[in-house]
């Protein structure tokens, strides 16, 4: 029942915050959000699952009750976690709390609504990462959109209306495409399943129960469903060429919303790719290895090149997310224990580091009211702590050893080199590794221009060190990044344990 | 033996009787002292009457009155009236809408004349709707349809100083009279062929009608036209935007939710009981195959309603067209009926009924929010709603829930009821109908989210003056919002009841 409690408490916290007066909303939201943090840590401490939740593994904190009986397919309230979802649950709770603290300075109007929506989004995200029934999962998946739409649309920058609508329309159409793909798979399974529980569907697919539907043969149906689901999730990730909503959404979104968007919402896409495409249809995935690897490498290189061309700090970080999420796709298609495990680890690592970077940009913006690289120089003289953390975070992003980014990228590259899905995989990996150089390039370029050199600032604001509550969440994230980098086994063993059953299916062993 | 079974049979009509008596009581209260305003008392009595009738219907449903496990449907007055699970389920929809509308009208009518008449007209119309759901003979169908319609005409034209309202009332009345005539003519043709008006007898005599199958087909078509008017389906829909826009907003809520559901109630019963598909398709080479007719109507209605709604600048008009679109969704219940698969037929018809119940909450709520906006005098276009959320966050939250639920977005009741509807259609083999519905539903998000965007994201284009905080309207709107949200987790009993009672028709 701990998962239900976690989601329920977060919902309640959102309601309470929504009706509180603005003055107390920020502090109250912070205090209330500590409860889910505590809950997720308790879950982590008491975690006793083994194997993959979808492939007959032992699921932790499982609940499975019939919610709705409707025709052939019962809808179950089924939630639970395994080694893939638990790290993301912990990431969600911690990042939300930190994002709430980082909102104290920039969010000045309609605060209770803002914090209420942040908590509402957290509750839905927890639902996405714990739901194991397609219907329940889809309810949460779509429900995440609503608070994000408001967060961008109400508290965003000058072009917020355009960005909010674009985000909403893009991701909603993607959801529809994905939904059609998945449902066609369900109809293809016919009488061999009696519910929409993901484990049941995954097991039925593994045992070859898929038959044709609407004139398509079983293998053609699998391909069509795979492509539809991949397109749907690819928008969320986002991979090139479906990434165009992301810079708009990021640039216009207020800092805390960007943190959540890059830190957790993008992971919904890769998490779903892993759960649906790569776990349920491994043969189909392997047959599409070449286009997927191409897309992954294109995202890495093109995203990094786009970042290199930006003058806006936030855009730099936003495009670099496209690049980093490309690594995740590369790791997933590698179909090796280090590849898929590293991809999952990268989801957490990138969640921490991109959160850190967006917050750091936000702190600089709070002080300077500009994010343009050309407007400032030598900021480190005036705000040494912020600058120090910014540099440390950037090093984490570049994959400096003993930081989470390094561990994740190392795992992914190791896994991708070992991969046997196709002969050209080492070539793709080599090209993708070149992305690191570009990442180092644009981050060093940005830091050099903004933080170091003689102090110069084209604006009327007084530049002082940021207040403690702005810097503290950065420090926490940096600490977590280092902890995870020094000791990746905190999550990596449980991730590996959950990933290995997928690989046995994929035929990598 | 449960206490229910020891009561005389006619008590099964208690919901209709309570509604009718409340209507009369309201007239009496108003007659005692017509000069003073008893608005609070009148609204209270109307609400209590509706809730009482709804409570009895709910109690009957739980106790199983008229359902299979308690000996089957209760027939009254020579089979002209039948009380079964389906009529009780629809009664629940009418009474909850009537209750919400009565509460909300307390504020809306505060400075209007003829308050007593307003409430009693609402209650009489609700009585007519309840009787429509219970009608088992084409004669009672016609009479109860008129009982529901005549008060509605007056209600639409209630704001007699307002040209829009009067014009809407006239338009509604003229088209209503025309379609009543068409409907009556259809009944007479069916009577000519089958020699009966009682629905099961009509079905029993259909097999003798082989030479007159053309006349029968014409009769069925004309009867379908009558229902299309009542449910605001294409091609008899064009009164709806005018009437809903011109009418006082609580009346629009009442018409677009309850009155539409009543049309569906009687359409479901007449077509499944009097013209069972497996019998009529056997006649004259399937020329009376009404399932195809309704499939066509469903597709055209939902598509036309949605596209027309997308082009509106006026929120109330947008809702009116979207309500036409929802009539299209509900029509799937009739369209997806197939020969010889009674289990799937019950499922899809039940899903349609469950959608109408959820729709009763979300659509009534949306129109009542508009009533609030009218009360505040802030105008009717999308621009006029700009920045409303800064002034009235709670009401705007409720409206947001209605809009997203109408669009079929989780986590609201509209999502799960649409899912059940489309799923049941696919199960009956009508996956293309479900696909058209799903695409329409996705498109509808565009215009529903415009309201949300205006309220929350846009800056007010002019200073917003929110004068009063109308208590009754707030209560009704929040009640509808809570209902819309709770119908997602609590959907199981609704769909279960709906599908059980619908299955009893086959």
Element-level helix/strand string of chain B? HHHEEHHHHHHHHHHHHHHHHHH
Structural class call of chain A reads: mainly alpha
**What is the helix content of chain B?**
over 70%
Biggest interface goes to: A-B, 31 and 31 residues
Number of domains of chain A: 1
Main beta-sheet strand count, sense and barrel state of chain B = 2 strands, antiparallel
Give the tally of β-strands of chain B. 2
Structural description of this entry:
The complex is a heterodimer of chains A (509) and B (506). Chain A has one domain (1-503). Chain A contains 20 helices and four strands. Chain A has helices at residues 2-19, 22-45, 85-102, 111-130, 134-143, 145-155, 160-189, 198-206, 218-236, 245-252, 255-280, 282-287, 289-308, 313-334, 337-368, 384-398, 404-418, 425-450, 468-486, 489-506, and strands spanning 60-68, 75-81, 376-377, 456-457. In chain A, helix 13 (289-308) runs parallel beside helix 18 (425-450), helix 15 (337-368) runs antiparallel to helix 19 (468-486) and helix 16 (384-398) packs parallel to helix 19 (468-486). The model of chain A has no long low-confidence stretch (mean pLDDT 89). By secondary structure, chain B is mainly alpha-helical. Chain B contains 21 helices and two strands. Chain B has a two-stranded antiparallel ribbon. In chain B, a hairpin with a 4-residue loop joins strand 1 (74-76) and strand 2 (81-83). Chains A and B meet through helix 5, helix 6 and helix 7 of A and helix 17, helix 18, helix 19 and helix 21 of B. Chain A: The chain crosses the membrane at residues 84-104, 125-155, 167-189, 210-235, 255-276, 288-310, 316-335, 347-365, 385-412, 424-446, 466-486. Chain A: Belongs to the complex I subunit 4 family. Chain A: Keywords: Membrane, Oxidoreductase, Transmembrane, Transmembrane helix.
């Amino acid at each position: 029942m701990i998962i239900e409690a976690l989601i329920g408490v977060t919902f309640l916290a959102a309601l309470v915050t929504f009706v509180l007066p603005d003055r107390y909303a920020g502090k109250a939201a912070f205090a209330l959000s500590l409860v889910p943090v505590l809950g997720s840590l308790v879950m982590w401490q008491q975690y006793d699952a083994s194997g993959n939740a979808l492939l007959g593994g032992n699921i932790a904190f499982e609940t499975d009750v019939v919610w709705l009986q409707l025709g052939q397919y019962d809808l179950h309230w089924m939630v639970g976690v395994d080694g893939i979802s638990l790290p993301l649950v912990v990431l969600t709770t911690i990042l939300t709390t930190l994002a709430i603290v980082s909102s104290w300075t920039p969010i000045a109007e309609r605060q209770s609504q803002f914090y209420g929506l942040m908590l509402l989004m957290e509750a839905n995200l927890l639902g996405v990462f714990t739901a194991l029934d397609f219907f329940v999962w889809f309810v949460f998946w779509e429900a995440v959109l609503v608070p994000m739409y408001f967060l961008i649309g109400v508290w965003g920058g000058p072009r917020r209306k355009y960005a909010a609508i674009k985000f909403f329309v893009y991701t909603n159409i993607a959801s529809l495409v994905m939904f059609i793909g998945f449902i066609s798979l369900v109809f293809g399974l016919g009488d061999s399943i009696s519910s929409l529980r993901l484990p049941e569907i995954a097991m039925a697919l593994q045992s070859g129960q898929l038959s044709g539907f609407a004139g398509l043969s079983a293998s053609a149906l699998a391909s069509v469903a795979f492509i539809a689901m991949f397109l749907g999730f690819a928008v969320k990730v986002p991979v090139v060429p479906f990434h165009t909503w992301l810079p708009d959404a990021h640039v216009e979104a207020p800092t805390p919303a960007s943190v959540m968007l890059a830190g957790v919402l993008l992971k919904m896409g890769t998490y779903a790719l892993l759960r649906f495409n790569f776990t349920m249809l491994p043969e189909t995935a392997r047959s599409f290895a070449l286009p997927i690897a191409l897309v992954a490498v294109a995202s890495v290189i093109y995203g990094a090149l786009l970042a290199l061309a930006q003058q806006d700090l936030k855009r730099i970080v936003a495009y670099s997310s496209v690049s980093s999420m490309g690594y995740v796709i590369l790791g997933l298609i590698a179909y090796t224990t280090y590849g898929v495990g590293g991809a999952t680890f990268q989801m957490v690592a990138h969640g921490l580091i991109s959160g850190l970077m967006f917050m750091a940009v936000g702190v600089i913006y709070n002080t300077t009211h500009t994010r343009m690289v050309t407007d400032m120089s030598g900021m480190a003289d005036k705000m040494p702590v912020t600058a120090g953390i910014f540099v440390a975070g950037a090093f984490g992003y570049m994959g400096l050893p003993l930081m989470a980014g390094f561990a994740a990228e190392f795992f992914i590259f190791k896994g991708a080199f070992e991969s046997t899905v196709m002969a050209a995989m080492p070539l793709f990996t080599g090209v993708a590794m070149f992305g690191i150089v570009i990442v180092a390039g644009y981050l060093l370029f940005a830091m050099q221009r903004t933080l170091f050199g003689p102090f110069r600032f084209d604006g009327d604001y007084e530049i002082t060190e940021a207040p403690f509550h702005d810097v503290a969440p950065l420090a926490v994230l940096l600490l977590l990044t280092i902890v995870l980098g020094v000791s990746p086994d905190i999550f990596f063993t449980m991730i590996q344990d959950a990933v290995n059953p997928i690989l046995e299916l994929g035929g990598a062993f | 033996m449960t206490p229910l079974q020891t009561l005389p049979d006619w008590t099964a009509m208690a919901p209709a009787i309570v509604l009718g008596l409340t209507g009369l009581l309201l007239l009496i209260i108003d007659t005692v002292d017509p000069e003073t305003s008893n608005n609070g008392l009148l609204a209270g009595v109307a609400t209590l009457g509706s809730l009482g009738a709804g409570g009895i219907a709910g109690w009957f449903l739980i106790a199983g009155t008229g359902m299979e496990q308690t000996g089957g449907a209760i027939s009254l007055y020579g089979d002209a009236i039948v009380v079964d699970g389906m009529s009780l389920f629809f009664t629940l929809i009418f009474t909850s809408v009537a209750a919400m509308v009565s509460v909300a009208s307390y504020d809306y009518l505060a400075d209007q004349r003829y308050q007593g008449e307003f409430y009693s007209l609402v209650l009489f119309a609700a009585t007519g709707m309840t009787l429509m759901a219970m009608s088992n003979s084409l004669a009672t169908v016609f009479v109860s349809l008129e009982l529901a319609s005549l008060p509605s005409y007056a209600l639409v034209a209630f704001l007699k100083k307002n040209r829009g309202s009067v014009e809407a009332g006239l338009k509604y009345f003229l088209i209503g009279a025309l379609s009543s005539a068409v409907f009556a003519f259809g009944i007479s043709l069916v009577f000519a062929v089958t020699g009966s008006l009682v629905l099961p007898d009509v079905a029993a005599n259909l097999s003798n009608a082989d030479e007159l199958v053309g006349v029968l087909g014409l009769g069925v078509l004309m009867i379908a036209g009558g229902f299309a008017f009542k449910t605001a389906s294409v091609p008899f829909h064009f009164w709806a935007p005018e009437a809903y826009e011109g009418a006082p907003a609580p009346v629009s809520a009442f018409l677009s939710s309850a009155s539409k559901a009543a049309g569906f109630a009687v359409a479901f019963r007449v077509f499944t009981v009097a013209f069972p598909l497996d019998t009529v398709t056997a006649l004259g080479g399937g020329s009376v195959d009404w399932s195809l007719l309704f499939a066509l109507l469903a597709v055209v209605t939902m598509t036309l309603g949605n596209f027309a709604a997308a082009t509106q600048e006026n929120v109330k008009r947008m809702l009116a067209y979207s309500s036409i679109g929802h009539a299209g969704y509900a029509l799937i219940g009739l369209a997806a009926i197939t020969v010889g698969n009674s289990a799937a037929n019950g499922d899809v018809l039940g899903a349609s009924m469950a959608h109408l119940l959820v729709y009763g909450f979300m659509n009534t709520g949306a129109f009542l929010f508009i009533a609030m906006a009218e009360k505040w005098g802030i105008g009717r276009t999308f621009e006029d709603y700009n920045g409303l959320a800064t002034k009235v966050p709670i009401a705007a939250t409720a409206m947001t829930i209605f809009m997203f639920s109408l669009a079929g977005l989780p986590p609201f009741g509209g999502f799960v009821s649409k899912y059940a509807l489309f799923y049941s259609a696919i199960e009956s083999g009508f996956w293309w109908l479900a696909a058209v519905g799903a695409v329409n539903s996705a498109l509808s998000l565009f215009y529903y989210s415009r309201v949300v965007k205006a309220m929350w994201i846009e800056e007010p284009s002019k200073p917003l003056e929110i004068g009063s905080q109308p208590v009754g309207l707030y209560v009704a709107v929040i009640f509808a919002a809570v209902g819309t949200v709770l119908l997602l987790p609590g959907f199981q009993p609704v769909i279960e009841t709906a599908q059980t009672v619908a299955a009893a028709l086959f």
